[in-house]
Automatic annotation (TrEMBL):
The keyword Heme applies. Keywords: Heme, Iron, Metal-binding. InterPro entries: Haem_Oase (IPR002051), Haem_Oase-like (IPR016053), Haem_Oase-like_multi-hlx (IPR016084). This is Biliverdin-producing heme oxygenase. The keyword Zinc does not apply.
Length: 216
């Protein structure tokens, strides 16, 4: 009965993780079958999501539930902006647009940030722990496929300069999850929100897949 919350959230979202990981857009992207425009479009979508996640940071910094997770070394917005400048040029801001699924995802993150810190933690976990894990596989592929400088412009999003030991960092992050001040019911709601977060990601992949069908 005493499964830790970090184990619970990981196990409960396992199926959704497999779905996101094996979506056709991701498979084609990682298979080196898509052009750099597809990677750029995906990076744009990430920017809208991290904009929603990270614009909430000042407001949540002192929150007893979400506050402890807001480690400055995780922040990705500045890195995404450098990548987008590299991928789009200096006018990137006027060039980027959110897909409908991305807008829904960002809106959900913003809504949690506004009035449900536990829900925000679910989104925080889904993105940042994923970026620290599978994100490294995506970086490696992107460097090889489109010729970005190793850990340089174009893939900075995946490079956590200030996290020397990602495995240790993830361990500490899981300890924070295990220490979350929430009762069992709230924890269950957070797990459900995590599943929703994965589904929101999968929906973005679906729309990206429609925009970049392999047979085109
Ligand atoms: C092709 C894409 C992906 C690959 C190859 C991938 C791969 C991985 C790998 C290897 C891990 C490490 C598991 C461990 O440390 O034991 C991981 C963890 C994780 N991934 Fe992914 N992943 C992908 C997509 C995603 C997506 C789209 C999300 C959600 C937005 C995501 C969220 C997570 C999370 C939250 C974890 C941490 C699980 C935990 O230890 O609690 N991943 N992923």
């Amino acid at each position: 009965m005493s499964t830790s919350f970090s184990t619970l959230i990981r196990t409960a979202s396992h199926e959704q993780h497999t779905q996101a990981e094996t979506s056709s857009f991701m498979s084609h992207l990682l298979g080196g079958e898509l052009g750099v425009e597809a990677y750029r479009r995906y990076t744009e979508q990430l920017w809208f999501v991290y904009e929603a996640l990270e614009s909430a940071v000042p407001r949540l910094a002192e929150d007893p539930v979400a506050g402890p997770f807001l480690r400055p070394e995780l922040l990705r917005r500045a890195e995404l902006e450098r990548d987008l400048e590299h991928l789009h040029g200096p006018e990137w801001r006027t060039a980027v647009t959110a897909l409908p699924a991305t807008a829904r995802y960002a809106d959900r993150v913003a809504a949690c940030a506004a009035d449900w810190p536990g829900g925000y933690v679910a989104h925080h976990y889904t993105r940042y722990l994923g970026d620290l894990s599978g994100g490294q596989i995506i970086r490696d592929k992107a460097e090889r496929t489109w010729g970005f400088t190793r850990k340089g412009d174009g893939v900075r999003f995946y490079v956590f300069e200030q996290i020397g030991n990602p495995a240790a960092f993830k361990r500490e992050y899981r300890e924070l999850l295990d220490a979350l001040p929430a009762d069992d019911l709230e924890k269950q709601r957070i797990v459900d929100e995590c599943k929703r977060a994965f589904e929101l990601n999968t929906a973005v992949f679906r729309e990206l897949g429609e925009e970049f069908p392999l047979s085109a």
